[in-house]
Amino acid sequence: MLKSNKKIQKAWTFYDWANSVYPLVISSAIFPVFYEGYVDEKVIFFGFEFINTALITILSSCYFLLLVLILPVLSGIADSTGNKRSFMQFFCYLGSFCCVLLSFFDKNHLEISMLLFVMAGIGFWSSLVFYNAFLPEIAEKKDHDSLSARGFSMGYFGSVILLVLCLVLIFNAQESERAFYTRLCFALTGLWWFCFSQITFKNLPRGKKIRIKDKSTYQKGILELNKVRLYIMKTKRLKRFIYSFFVYSMAVQTIMLVAVYFGTKEVNWGEGANAKMGLIIGVLLIQLIAIPGAILLSKISKFKGNLFALKLVVFIWILLCLSALLVYEPIHFYLISGFVGLVMGGIQSLSRSTYSKYIPSGTKDTSSFFSFYDISEKLGIVIGMFSYGFIEQVTGSMRNSIVALVVFFIVGLLLLFQVPKEEISIESYG
Asked: How many angstroms separate the CA atoms of 213 and 207, rounded?
């Protein structure tokens, strides 16, 4: 009955509506433009000099590495206690609260300010581990692609509403007041995230419980994690998909996190507020096109299969990265933004639903299974972001970092061709 409950499924998708304002306003649009314009080109952070954008990418890779270390244990504990919802709530509230505090961002106290940025990111990405783990519990496998796409589509649509509101506040204000309204947008992001998440938490179940007798809470987490690891290593389809996802996620997530920083430095926007507006319009274009993109790819996967659709979209990403080397003017940025939007939502949605289909039927410890999914994604981000930031720090140009992203996509595509269509190893899990 749980897997046919439309009310629960709607509540689940509404968390995408609630939290997607963070990656748009904080990761992609308002905060990057604010940060790049407010903070000096070269900054001192704990006594070391960094290029400002290189500092963002390197810090991001560091907190994703922290997530890799703590989330597997937390997800195992969540499964063993049957309380995924509470873990999801905790990280949701941590992230939304830190977004509100980002409105006090001060370049003269950069270490504290960047700590808030890091904690907001930890809250967002950690909550997604437990959110994603609900998918196989609340829907049949045949509905995973469409429900996952519906969630991403709601997220893109909701985040666009808040972004438009933020743009109205910022660009209708007097020049002297724009800094205030920009900071206000960070607080609005946190409040939006917190308030709309209550719809999800009111209707979402606690999550299925796994009983492990006579073990401490920490041991339960380790046992569940190891149990899943052993199963994945015995399979071919699940293991090979994880390898491929790990590699192409290095590029996908890095692009999502640094696209605007690339736009601010590598594209000739001119001067003044209109230049910033043009950059944000490009980001808005990505979000709007991502909605039909996620739905379109779910339709392709329905008729041609998940693996075919993923191979197609990764190949398109390779072409887009190569095209980015030629982006210098705003019109170039708009064109490539449109195509990025088309494949960005699709690859995220389809990757999540494909993995959920590969989890063995009837399993209860979905948080532990999705912790492997998220470990792959987070480790990919660590390598992708660090590579991107390191290359920029050494060469002085973000454009040189694109070469690494092309390599990640090519390797990920080759690995996708090694994933069998059907599981040909063990079938049971327990």
From this structure: 19
How many C-beta atoms surround the C-beta of residue 85 within 10 A? 18
Q: 173-192: per-residue pLDDT in tens?
A: 887 888 899 999 999 999 99
242, 307, 389 from 415: Cα distances, Å: 10, 11, 25
Q: What global pTM score does this model have?
A: 0.73
Report d(CA 389, CA 394) in Å as an integer: 9
Instruction: For tokens 């748009």, name the residue.
Output: 24
The average confidence (pLDDT) of the chain is: 82
Phi/psi of residue 182, nearest 5 degrees: -65, -45
Which backbone phi and psi does 45 adopt, to 5 degrees? Answer: -130, 110
Tokens of 406: 């092309």
Do residues 3 and 147 make contact, with C-beta atoms less than 8 angstroms apart? no
Q: Write out pLDDT tens, residues 196-255.
A: 999 999 988 876 655 544 455 556 656 766 777 788 888 888 888 988 998 998 888 788
Tell me the β-bridge partners of 42: 51
Beta strands in 263-397 (DSSP E): none
Q: Which DSSP symbol is given to 336?
A: H
Q: Are 374 and 128 in contact (CB under 8 A)?
A: yes
C-beta of residue 117 within 8 angstroms of C-beta of residue 52: no
d(CA 230, CA 293): 35
Rounded to whole angstroms, how far apart are CA atoms 167 and 158?
15
Task: Report the alpha-carbon distance of residue 85 to residue 80 in Å, rounded.
Answer: 13
Closest by CA to 184, choosing from 173, 198, 199, is 173
Closest CA to 201 of 366, 91, 88, 98: 88
Q: What is the token pair recorded at 380?
A: 């990919």
d(CA 171, CA 168): 6
Chain CA centroid to CA 115, Å: 19
Burial 338-353 (b: 16+ CB within 10 A, else e): ebbbbbbbbbbbbbbb
Distance CA(308)–CA(249), nearest Å, equals 17
Q: What are the tokens at 42?
A: 């070269």
User: What gap in Å lies between CA 403 and CA 30, rounded to an integer?
Assistant: 27
Domains of the chain: 9-203+219-416 (1.20.1250.20)
Quote the tokens at residue 244. 């491929």
Structure tokens at 359: 């989890």
Q: Supply 191's token pair.
A: 């409040």
